[in-house]
Structure formats: C-alpha cells, structure tokens
Amino acid sequence: MTLIGLSAAYIRARALNAALNVLLLGLGVGTIVVLLLFSHQLEERLERDARGVDLVVGAKGSPLQLILSSVYHLDVPTGNIPLADAHTIAANPMVKAAVPLALGDSYLGFRIVGTDHAYVALYDGKTGAGRLWDKPFEAVLGAEAAARSHLRLGDKFVGSHGLVEGGEKHEHSPYTVVGILAASGSVLDRLVLTSVESVWEVHGQGHHDEDGHHDEDGDKGGDHAADEHLQPQEVTALLVQYRSPMAAAILPRQINAQSALQAASPAFESARLLSLVGVGIDTVQAFAVVLMLCAGLSVFIALYNALRERRYDLAVMRSLGASRSKLLAAVLIEGLILTSLGVVLGLLLGHLLAHGLGLWLEASQRVHITGWTLIRDEAALVVAALCIGLLSAALPAVLAYRTDIAGVLAKR
Amino acid sequence: MFALENICHGYGSIDVLRLAQWSVGPGERWLILGPSGSGKSTLLHILAGIIRPRTGSVSVGGENLSTMKPARLDRFRGRNIGIVFQRMHLIPSLTVLRNLLLAQYLAGVKPDPLKASSLLDELGLADVANRLPDALSVGETQRAAVARAVVNKPRLILADEPTSNLDDANATAALDLLRAQAGSCNATLVVATHDRRIRDCFEHQLELGMAT
Fold it and tell me: For B78, which of A2, A12, A320 is closest by C-beta distance?
C-alpha cells in the first residue's frame, strides 16, 4: 500500500471516467505525434533529396512542378529543353557541376532516368551489386526498385511509356540490368538509372515506328512530359551545382530571361511547398492542442468532483496519520497517472497510425513514412502533456492539502 | 497517559468546551458523556491532535501536542492514536485488507499484510478481507473500523459515538470488541457518547455540560 496504490485504487473506482480522460488526452497526443512524424520525415526527405542541387533548369512552366518532377520524381515534367542549351549552362563558369536528366518512361511505376554517373554521386549512392551503366540499354536499379521488381543482374526488362504503370511498352528496346544500388534512403532507391542516350534511342525508334498510335493516345498519356516525346538532343532537366554562392543571384535570372527555359531553386520551392502544406498541418495541430487542453480540463473536473466526494476520506486519512503534503502528493499522483496513461496511449496511437499511413503511402510508391521512429519533438510533447496533467491536478491537490479535518469529521 | 489543562475551545465567539483539568492513566477506560453540542467530539479531536485548543495544554504519552510541528503531530497520531468514527468510514475504494494496510502506511509503519490478515482473522473478518466496504454488513463494518484503529497497536484508542447507530446487540458487541482490543494493545480507551445504554460499562466517566 503506497500513495501510488491509493491513487490507482481511486482511479479504478472511477474507471469509466478515467478511461474518458485518458482517451481524450490520447487522441490529442496521438494526433500531434502523427503530425510531428509526418512533417519531420517529409522535411527530412525533401531536404535530403534536394541536397547538392542548387538549381534545376527545365522547360517553362510551374517552378514547383519542375522541382517535384526532376528532384523528387513525384510529378510529371514541364517539358524538355534542347541539349545545346543544357551544354551552354553547364559550360557557364558559375556552374561547378551539371547533371542532365532525361525522363519519360517507367518500369512498374519506377521512373527510368537517363543521366550520367554524377547523379549517383550526388546522393552518395553506392552499387550494392554489379556496376554502373556504361553502354546504352544498360540499367542500374535503385534498391527498392530492385526489391519490388525482383529483377536480378543480367535480367532484361522493357520500359513502358509514361510515368505510371500501364503505359504502352517499348518492346523493341529492352534494358539489361548491370547493377543494383545499395539502399541510400534517398530518391535513388525508387529509380531505374540508365544513360541519357538509352532514353533518346527508345523514343527515337518508338517515335518513328508508332507515330500515329501515339497521337491517338495523346490524352491518355497525359502524365507524359507535357505530351511531348523526348527527342534526341533534348533533355528534361539539368541539375546544377553553383561554384560560389554569388551564382544564386545571377544565374537564375540569366536563365529565366531565355524564352524556353526556367530555373527553379529546390530549397525555395520545397520551402514554398511546406508552407502551403504547413497551413493544413498548423490547423490540425491547433485542433490537437485544443483536444489536449480539453483533456486537461476534463482531468481537472474529474479530480475536483472526486475530491468533493472524498472530503471525508481525506479527513480520515489525516486522522490515520497522513500529513497534508502526503494528501497533496496523492492527488498530484492521481493526475499524473491519468496523464501518463493518456500520453502512453497517445504515443502508441500516433506511431501505429503513422505506420499504417506509411504503409498506405508506400503502396502508392510516393513517400516513405514510418511509425517506428522516435523524434526529439516527442519528448517535448510528453513533457507538455505531463505539465497539463500536473496543472489540472494542482488546484484539487491544494484543496486536499487544505482539508479541514475537524470540520469534515464533525459534520453528521 | 494523557493530561489536559485549562482547555478552552470554541468556534467564532462561542465557547463549546471548557475543561480545567483532566488526566488519565495508562490502560484506563473512560466514557465522555454529554448531550449533543457539549463538546465531546471537540474534546476527542483535541486529544487526537486534530485540532489545537484555543488555550490550554495537551500532553499525550508524555509528549506535548500543543507545541509539536504539524507533520510530526500527524505521524505521532498515526503511530499512537487509533480512532473509531461514528460512521466508521472505511475508504470505499479500498478493500478491507487494504484499508488496514493504508492505516499502516500512513502511520509510517511498513505495511505488513500478514499482521493485518491475522488481525482480521481474529475479528472474524477473514472472509471479507478482500471485499470493498460497501459489501459489508453493519456489524462487519464496525469490526473493520475497529481493526483499522488498532492495527498499529496504538497507546490511545478514541471512539466517537461508536454505538449510537447500532441496535442493542451490535452496540454491546462493538463495545466488547473495543474493550477487548484496548486490552490486548494495553491501550487507554476513551469513548465519547450520548448513548445511555453503555454508561454502566465504564469505571471512569467524564460528564460534559454545556459550556456556556
């Protein structure tokens, strides 16, 4: 028999009420945990995938779309740009490195990216098996693409037109798997890499052979590069690294001045994207905070009412030798037990929900979110929730501390 | 066992209790008699250190309660004084056994389930040890309340109207139990009552009149 045992017995005696309080707090905490996990992992993901890319040059259109399509591989490209323009930019003295990307096809929903080896180096990618591509129609699979497609070294596969599954297949030009990348946790995992020339050749041939067919299918292939097929001597985008920070002030303006080209900064666009999504996150977060405060209020009301019922108990305990501070502690402990249960429930709910949503998102092959990770903000959340619990127990605890034993005992 | 001197206590400007001198030796059994409002409960509360009288000094077991620090007084009460309330009042959320363990814990004694169980056994409460107080009969509740009061082997047992809500048979049983337990603890017993049925059972009596 201890104070904790006593508080636990009181909670058990009002189990339904306690369950309601725990549930309320659990829902609030759980919602915030899901939001924290999502925004944290999303930001981390956006940051990691954009690391080392200072500027993306592509066809005119929405800058956000350009970034989403060329850096995160989540959207369709805005169009293509002439190779000659890409060369001019790459040769600019302000540019330290430029990586071309040729998009347009996919395999089982994984994008086939025509590029050079510098793209792998950008994300510190390492080959897990085999080697990088050298000749046209040699392909290297990202870790996740390899695992899902069950392709192994030496296997052949054909890409399909467009960026989602179900596009027309390029049967005439199969790729051979020559390498598989080790998992890097970056966008590389979900890509199929090959040379720019391979992509050109697929579309060069495809275009000649099935020209009419493509035009009929124009609407259906809406996710393809703005309905333009990649022509030889074109690339979809160019990822640029600056030589000095100075370039950030000059280069984008220079490029945007050209009629066919636009330059977009991943850092700027992803910040813009997060601020757009952020409004929604903030709203839900505010709602969750209100939920937590309600839970605190509910704990307060429960303890306050319980204490009125227990005035006689408190007086008897005092007469049994309990000091004032022991009664104060007993009520605080009761509040803390309720809040801790709510916090534990909330953490469980939040992580389970994040895991479930992660699985669901993974099925759509877009974003990796896992529930099985702890982030630092959660500690702050736990502390805040416990503080709410302590605060809501404070007034009832003081009332318990001040119980006038003789007065209560004298009441008949 | 205890001595009171020049006690005067009241609420507001009204005095409820005036007592010039009262001292009781160890092992004595006393009955405090008086009509409602004569200050019986107040006197018991003063003896228990629950209230400090407006004037006068209280010493129990050689310790001066009037000058004791509050926390120390609480511990002293838990260790040395057992109280039986008129309404018994066991803690309703705790089983009978745990009510006894709580009394041990709050008195600063290490909770001893064996000792508590054997006490319940002795009082014929073994079968209801794990029941909540709501499930007990009047007689069982009475015995459980006495058990809780004596579980720490107090030197002074105070009972406030322990029989007034009971029928004759239960009243006699309750009184016998109190006396028997006081005997086995070598404790001094003080019972406050207006119940005339039991006045002949005590050798010492203190008659309180209206103070004003």
Answer: A320
Asked if B102 lies within 8 A of A6 by C-beta distance, the reply is: yes
Q: Read out DSSP for A262-295? A: EEE-HHHHHHHHHHHHHHHHHHHHHHHHHHHHHH
C-beta separation of A239 from A56 below 8 A: yes
CB proximity B48 to A under 8 Å: yes
Query: How many cross-chain Cβ pairs, A to B, lie less than 8 Å apart?
Result: 79
Helix orientation angle between B138-150 and B96-106, rounded to the nearest 10 degrees: 20
Residues of B in contact with A405 (CB under 8 A): 45, 50
Q: Which tens digits make up the pLDDT trace of A309-327? A: 888 899 999 999 999 999 9
Contact call for residues B30 and B190 (beta carbons, < 8 A)? yes
Is there a contact between A323 and B75 if contact means CB atoms under 8 Å apart? yes
Residue B3 in contact with partner chain A when CB distance is under 8 A = no
Give the single-character DSSP code of B26. T
Query: What is the pTM for the complete model shown?
Result: 0.79
- Provide the greatest CA pair distance for chain B: 50
Q: In chain B, what are the domains? A: 2-207 (3.40.50.300)
pLDDT of A209 strictly over 50: no
- Alpha-carbon gap: A401 to the closest alpha carbon of chain B (Å): 12
Q: What is the pLDDT of residues A103-137, one digit of tens each?
A: 989 998 899 999 999 999 989 899 999 999 999 99
Helices vs. strands in chain B: H and E counts, helices first: 6, 9
